[in-house]
Design brief:
By secondary structure, the chain is of the alpha+beta class. The chain has 12 helices and 37 strands. 44% of the residues are buried.
Length: 672
């Protein structure tokens, strides 16, 4: 009897807290509450609508963001969001009430000053800022109760063909970024130039996260999709492994929407489509306007055997075991490793490096791929736990520390979600260390840092692939593990013949792998001619001649100037990251490209300001739009998160019961 009395006393003592939690849960239903300067306030609401028009291998996307203020006073909102790293953002508009404002492209500092002045005057305003090629913030000033602000962005991008299908990735959420200790690196001193000291800009503060800092039961219908796919040849199929789609078709195009109507933006949207008819071959598109002539050269790989079959390999597996990889990602990495180790050939060597805060090695040198060694390596992988930071630069340096076995081809296989903020440091390290090796980057997760992973692959003269941990990871891992092949065409050069061609992008022509395409963009002065493409294929010289015809007026050709300018901006950004040349010249070139072609960049921004004053109440509260937790990413990966959300009332009640039982048991023990 005394036991139950003590039990009830504990329950009654704690019940008000459970009731408070229940009241709080009901109070926030349908709203987002956050902490601002220690005070609980409502956060701005957001919906995003994607209108995607695909013509062959070109996608034009309009992203419409609608901001609403559920609070009783003025607020200024900031939204952290991703775009594709190759997106050429060429237009922005803002709508508030009956007013529609077309944004102007300006130098970044000037745009910030215009925005700040408008905010102080009480006008509605929107400012787009690029922090990385794939990471942006949209700031909205003076967002008033009952007066939504709608901001629309338009961009174009090419759609790459990967393993027989075109793959369009629409990033929907920015994952957390680790900005920890950085490995000291020697500073290069360019010949004939002063010491270069370029550093990547710091990342914006990460906003509060639903389910972690904030309640998890917020309406999930934040994103819609309206897609149209048309082509000169029949569309065979359109699929998505990430989202269920509802498809309709007519004689003109194939249309798609989310099957659920609207979805939560907690993973990237990946679309794959197959076009019928003859496979697109190498060819040239041209365009001429008042800015001059532009050219796009697409190169298809020749058929050739994989020379890696005849050459022993040293495969260096580099596994991310940081906290953000905990759960599904690390499990998928382990399944990948099981398939990859099983697939090693006689004569191969291998190493395994795991990293979080530090890098740890399975062996201090490359060991033969014997059955015993492969089993020992797999046992090591299975014991790995995911925790800690993400010191990728340390891991990359460790991969190149040991001597390569003679007569082997070194392949570095890198598995990570890429959640770091110091991308430039990692890319510099790879360029300095790569030698004759190749790096294959495998992104593990549902919203990974593709800018970093594809940059690693480009600098490492390999390619990037992605693993969705929620898919049948066994089949996916097996297929990817078998994909460690060498390129079909290397040492590629282009003879432009009599054509006057300049400013070719990418500046460094990459190798070409089977199942992929290579696109070169350039300025040219018009006219017809022939282009000769040459390279090495399986140790033999290979060449191809392509005709260039006068300017094409197709939709794809009309987008060439924007895509060329975006690629040139990417070349200059990469040069800045590498610290190998004149910083001021590259910054000036990026700024000029952005202003001339009306493109968002690191040094140019779109800004829109209303004519009317909407806020006469005084300074607006500064708040950030909350983000959903990325699917499959654990709470420990998020910056500043020190615990779980408030437990559900039934969970809290269960904890109280456990606590009461423990207390009662303690009393019984004392009594004994």
């Amino acid at each position: 009897m005394r036991f139950f009395t003590q039990f009830l006393i504990v329950i009654v003592a704690f019940w008000p807290f459970a009731a408070l939690a229940q009241a709080g849960a009901e109070d926030v239903a349908g709203r987002i509450l956050g902490q601002i300067d220690g005070r609980q306030v409502e956060l701005p609401m957001l919906t995003s609508d994607y209108d995607i028009d695909i013509q062959g291998d070109l996608a034009t996307v309009t992203l419409t963001q609608t901001f609403e203020n559920p609070y009783s006073a003025a607020m200024s909102a900031e939204y952290l969001f991703p775009l594709h790293r190759k997106a050429a953002v060429y237009a922005m508009t803002m709508e508030v009430g009956d007013e529609r404002v077309r944004a102007q492209i300006q130098e970044k500092k000037e745009a910030e000053q215009v925005f700040a002045a408008a905010e102080a005057e009480g006008k509605a305003a929107a400012l787009l800022t690029q922090h990385r090629p794939n990471m942006f913030t949209q700031r909205v000033a003076n967002l008033m109760p009952g007066l939504p602000v709608t901001v629309s962005l338009s961009y174009v991008q090419t759609v790459p063909r990967i393993d027989g299908a075109y793959e369009l990735v629409v990033p929907l959420v920015v994952g957390p970024r680790y900005e920890g200790a950085q490995t000291p690196e020697p500073e290069p001193v360019p010949q004939g130039a002063a010491q270069a000291g370029w550093t990547m800009s710091s990342l914006p503060d990460y906003p509060q996260v639903m389910g972690l800092d904030l309640p998890d039961h917020v309406a999930p219908d934040r994103v819609s999709l309206d897609l149209s796919l048309a082509s000169a040849v029949p569309v065979v199929s359109l699929t998505s492994a990430t989202h269920a789609l509802s498809l309709t078709s007519d004689d003109q195009a194939l249309s798609a929407q989310f099957e659920a109507g609207r979805v939560i933006d907690n993973r990237d949207l990946v679309l794959r489509y197959v076009l019928g008819g003859e496979t697109l071959s190498s060819g040239v598109l041209t365009h001429l306007d008042d800015r001059g002539g532009f050219l796009s050269l697409m190169i298809e790989p020749p058929s050739a055997p994989d020379v890696s079959d005849a050459m022993p390999r040293e495969i260096v597996f580099v596994l991310d075991t940081s906290g953000s990889m905990n759960g599904l990602p690390i499990a998928a990495s382990k399944r990948f490793m099981a398939a990859a180790l099983e697939g090693l050939r006689p004569g191969d060597f291998f190493r395994i490096i795991s990293f979080s805060n530090e890098a740890e090695q399975f062996s201090d040198r490359a060991i033969p791929a014997t059955e015993a060694n492969r089993k020992a390596g797999l046992s090591y992988v299975r014991r790995l736990q995911a925790a800690g930071g993400t010191e990728i630069d340390t891991a990359i340096r460790t991969a190149f520390l040991t001597a390569q076995p003679k007569g082997t081809l070194r392949l570095v296989v890198f598995l990570s979600d890429g959640y770091i903020g110091n991308e430039a440091t990692v890319l510099r390290t790879i360029r300095q260390q790569i030698g004759t090796a190749r790096i294959y980057a495998f992104g593990v997760g549902m919203s990974v840092n593709r800018y970093l992973l594809e940059g690693i692959a480009e600098e490492g003269r390999g390619f990037a692939r992605y693993v969705d941990p929620t898919e049948d990871a066994g089949e996916v891992a097996e297929a990817l593990a078998q994909d460690l092949r060498t390129p079909v065409l290397t040492d590629i050069t282009v003879d432009w013949g009599d054509l006057a061609v300049s400013e070719v992008s990418p500046a460094r022509i990459p190798d070409l792998f089977a199942g992929r395409q290579l696109r070169l963009l350039a300025r040219y002065q018009g006219g017809a001619g022939q282009v000769r493409i040459s390279g090495q294929s399986a140790g033999r010289q290979a060449s191809l001649t392509v005709d260039v015809v006068p300017a094409d007026e197709s939709i794809s050709a009309g987008a060439i100037p924007l895509i060329w300018a975006r690629e040139r901006i990417a070349d200059h950004e990469r040069a800045l990251a590498m610290r190998g040349s004149d910083e001021n010249a590259h910054e000036k070139a990026i700024t000029q490209l952005g202003l001339t072609y009306g493109l968002q960049s690191r040094f140019t921004s779109f800004v829109a300001v209303s004519e009317q004053i909407v806020n006469t109440e005084g300074p607006a509260r500064q708040v950030a739009v909350a983000l959903p937790q990325v699917a499959g990413v654990p709470p420990s990966a998020y910056p500043g998160f020190s615990g779980a959300s408030t437990p559900e009332p039934q969970t809290l009640f269960g904890l109280l019961v456990v606590a009461a039982c423990g207390a009662a048991a303690g009393l019984r023990r004392r009594r004994v």
